Amino acid sequence: MRVTSVTTNKTLSVETKIGIFDYKSLDPRLFFGYQIITNDGTTYKIASLEKAIVDYFYLNSQVAEVDDIRGLRFNEELLKEKLNRLELEKIMSVFDSETLNTRISRLTDYLQL
Q1: Strand 12-15 relative to strand 20-25: parallel, antiparallel, unpaired?
Q2: Which domain holds residue 104?
Q3: From 40's CA, which of 51, 85, 94, 106 has a CA 20 to 30 Å away?
Q4: Neighbours of 51 (CB within 10 A)
């Protein structure tokens, strides 16, 4: 199992018996768009679907073309049903990156959103 999280701390990868945990560094001004969840006494932050998608594309610049997006093997039907294009655009405006906007546009075009 491999889990990736974003953090405002330094990028780090930790390998344990149950899996690999990657922590990717994000500028504090981009650390938003999550809910605080408490489960069994543990509190953690979970990003909205839209924020998770934008973070992923921001942190993985190699995902640039439609073939790269296809290779991610997203659940396309779920994304078509759940992904809010207006929320994506709102989040992308904070990142203020034309390259990111282009890559996310390729995703939304691919999904026909």
Answers
A1: antiparallel
A2: 48-111
A3: 51
A4: 21
For 22-35, how does the pLDDT look when each residue is reduced to its tens digit (9 = 90+)? 999 999 999 999 99
> What is the per-residue pLDDT across 61-82, written as a single tens digit (0 to 9) for each?
999 999 999 999 999 999 999 9
Alpha carbons 73 and 17: distance in angstroms, whole number: 26
Number of domains in the chain: 1
Helix (H) or strand (E) holding 18: none
Token pair, residue 59, equals 């942190």
Q: Is 20 inside a domain boundary?
A: no
Residue 65 lies in a domain: yes
Q: Give the SS3 label for residue 23.
A: strand
Q: Is the pTM of this model over 0.90?
A: yes
Task: Give CA–CA dist 95/89, Å, rounded.
Answer: 10
